[in-house]
Amino acid sequence: MASFGLIAAYCAFPADLRWLPFLLASFAAIPAVAVGLRRSPVGTRQPWWLLLTAVGCLNAANLAWAWSTYLASTPVRYDVASAGLYALGYLFLLGDAVLIVLRRGRRDLGGVIDAAITLLALGGLLWDVVFLPFHQAANVPPTEQVFLFIDVFVMMGILGALLRVALVSRRIIAVWLLVAGLATCLVANVITVYAADPVTNALPDWTNVPFLLAYVCLGSAALHPTAVMISEPGPEPADDLTPGRLIFLGLMMALIPVVGGGRALLGLPVDGVLIAVGSAVLVPLVMLRVGRLSAQRRRAEQELLRLATVDTLTGLPNRAACLERLTTELATFPGRQAVLFCDLDGFKPVNDRLGHAAGDALLVAVAARLRGAVRENDLVSRFGGDEFVVVCHADDPRAAVDAVCERIREVVRQPIDVAGEQVRVGLSVGVAFAGPLATTDDLINRADLAMYEAKQSKALGRLSLAHA
């Protein structure tokens, strides 16, 4: 409220003393941001440190402006030192926005990039249509044009990124206040273009009011209770690679050069620096966006493939993956395979007595033990229910199977801790060896029949083995 009072007092002060309430109102943002920094948890204060540095640079620029405009023995219309400090302050604001985006919007980085691309392109359009014609007509020095160009372009990028974060995190009022502060500052820069005297380029004092409102918004953002939530990860909205989105990104990327080329054809002034810098910034952002969407699609396809070939409970290859692997091996190295069809003995009593969660834990434990009992190039798969299939590949499959079965026998003897109890299960194993003309179905069926033969001699906590 005190800052709003200073803004009201600014308009009531004599013209030659208005720099005083202006500085008081703008400097009030520094302790406000410092308070917000202290309130933030340790480890999440980096954005507030950057905002504090940015506000400090902007206020240093205000001091330089007040000195050169009101207090110096020879006032000047434009001061390079203050313009440089303003540009530096906006760059720190950009760093602050980047940190907020990386923390609050890291689950929505694609949407943030889209928003930044859009606002940067619109910023280039704003510069070409609003600022450049005025500067050309008023013969504004090139140095001043460069600093203002940096201010506008950087602010548009910041505004786009933060606006996306604010739209996704609607209840974080502190982010909305930051957006309001930046938007007000941008509007203030546009106002200065239209309000400047066409001959002297002097500005009426009321044009400073929007800048003061921007400082109030930045300080209020730091003091708002939701400021502590800025560094927390936000929600993850849908981010699909659609034709409409690709077309939109392409249009935004082409906006600056197309508008510049159109103005050149009409004989209007064109800013070559804008086209060069705008393209140098927008093209990499669009390529990064397309690359992220493409990588996201690949990850989704890989996940679908994984889900189609992996048993979600045990992490072992599922039935489909097992049959595909066996078919491939039989076609490539016929006669070198052995299939072990394994079925748990005593699983149902454990599942009925201790519950399905305990039964799942038992299956996971058995899967881990089987995986540890086979050789590195052997395949262990969950075929369904409490059935597992092991595919061994070796020049001498019988010798390999003997060694694997011996290791399986050792792990079956050990009790398994399930739901706080020590339980024992048996394992019935049917073994089938591939001949030169063996097929996948034939091999699996023979191993399955051998497994049922082994069950006839089952004993809990033992390995029952039969060969086809």
From TrEMBL:
The keyword Membrane applies. It comes from the Bacteria. Keywords: Membrane, Transmembrane, Transmembrane helix. SUPFAM superfamilies: Nucleotide cyclase. InterPro entries: DGC-Regulatory_Protein, GGDEF_dom, Nucleotide_cyclase, Rev_trsase/Diguanyl_cyclase. The chain crosses the membrane at residues 19-37, 49-68, 80-102, 109-134, 146-167, 174-196, 208-225, 246-266, 272-290. Residues 335-468 form the GGDEF domain. This is GGDEF domain-containing protein. It comes from Couchioplanes caeruleus subsp. caeruleus.
